[in-house]
């Protein structure tokens, strides 16, 4: 009998060990092949001068030194990316919160309003880029027609050809696209707040604004942290919208990043260096690794700032 119990125990342990591995194995294999290996290989190739076809030439940290100290385009791409982020993301989050608060009190037409506001987020970047290139065209764009008809300007502005105006168009495009997404997340958080808390505040005489500021906003802090972190990550990976905006504008701009590279993002610079102009995959890997470091630093800083506000 003791031998039988030992055999049964061993058999149970075998099944409890093998079955979880059997079910987890497909995911782990796919993750290792399609995620982990490319990440490690990108870090490996960053130490080489390589065009993707020929022989690799080891240069050590030379590519990193070139990117940080010598490459003006890389430094400008960081500046342009953060400039667009600072112009677009805070307003997107604020408008999403205010829109969610408004829709949460709306009795009729709420679902229609949610759908209409969420449509920009699920619209393809190609359509968004072409649409905004038509809206802000200097000769036939709707925006210039409205401005000139209202007397605000005497002649149409070259929105997509002026380096002082082009990044404002990209920022406005990001606000238009992301506001509906943030609204949907905030609206889900608002609906999860217990109704008893809101009713207790109203019984105590709190106004709608006071209830929103003292109860709704503090209880949405976890959602705000999630939105801020994901918005930072998405903002640092911005590429499709500005690239398609200028490619669809018909300006014939040869350099990446729009006029005077005023909208050159980090990913756009990575794409140009790695695949379009010079095909330097080794140096492009350096840009990808440095972008990963920038994302980690920004996410950790954002989480630390949000945690300090919560503690205070």
Task: Write structural notes for this entry.
The chain has 312 residues and is an all-alpha fold. It has 13 helices and 2 strands, in the order H-E-E-H-H-H-H-H-H-H-H-H-H-H-H. A two-stranded antiparallel ribbon has the order 1-2. A hairpin with a 7-residue loop joins strand 1 (48-49) and strand 2 (57-58). It is globular, with a radius of gyration of 26 Å.
Q: What's the quick description here?
A:
With 312 residues, the chain is mainly alpha-helical. Helix content is 74%, strand content 1%.
Strand line-up across the major sheet: 1-2
Question: What is the straight-line distance between the termini?
Answer: 64 Å
Q: Please identify the structural class as seen in this structure.
A: mainly alpha
User: Helical proportion?
Assistant: over 70%
């Amino acid at each position: 009998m003791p031998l039988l119990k030992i055999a049964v125990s061993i058999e149970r342990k075998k099944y409890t060990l093998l079955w979880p591995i059997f079910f987890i194995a497909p995911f782990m294999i796919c993750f290792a092949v399609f995620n982990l290996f490319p990440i490690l290989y990108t870090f490996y190739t960053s130490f080489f001068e390589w065009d993707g076809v020929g022989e690799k030439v080891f240069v050590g940290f030379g590519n990193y030194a070139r990117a940080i100290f010598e490459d003006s385009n890389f430094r400008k791409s960081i500046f342009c990316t953060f400039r667009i982020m600072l112009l677009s993301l805070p307003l997107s989050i604020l408008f999403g919160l205010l829109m969610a608060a408004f829709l949460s009190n709306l009795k009729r037409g709420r679902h229609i309003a949610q759908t209409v506001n969420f449509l920009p987020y699920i619209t393809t970047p190609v359509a968004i880029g072409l649409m905004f290139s038509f809206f802000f065209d200097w000769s036939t764009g709707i925006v210039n027609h409205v401005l000139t008809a209202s007397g605000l300007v005497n002649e149409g502005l070259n929105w997509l050809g002026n380096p002082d105006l082009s990044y404002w168009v990209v920022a406005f495009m990001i606000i238009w696209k992301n506001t509906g997404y943030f609204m949907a997340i905030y609206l889900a958080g608002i609906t999860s707040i217990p109704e008893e808390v809101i009713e207790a505040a109203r019984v105590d005489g709190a106004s709608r604004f006071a209830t929103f500021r003292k109860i709704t906003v503090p209880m949405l802090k976890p959602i705000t942290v999630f939105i801020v972190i994901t918005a930072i990550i998405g903002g640092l990976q911005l590429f499709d919208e500005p690239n398609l905006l200028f490619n669809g504008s018909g300006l014939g701009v040869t350099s990446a990043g729009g006029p005077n590279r005023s909208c050159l993002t980090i990913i756009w610079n990575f794409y140009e260096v790695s695949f379009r102009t010079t095909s330097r995959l080794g140096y492009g890997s350096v840009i990808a690794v440095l972008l990963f470091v920038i994302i980690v630093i920004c996410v950790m800083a954002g989480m630390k700032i949000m945690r300090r506000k919560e503690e205070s």
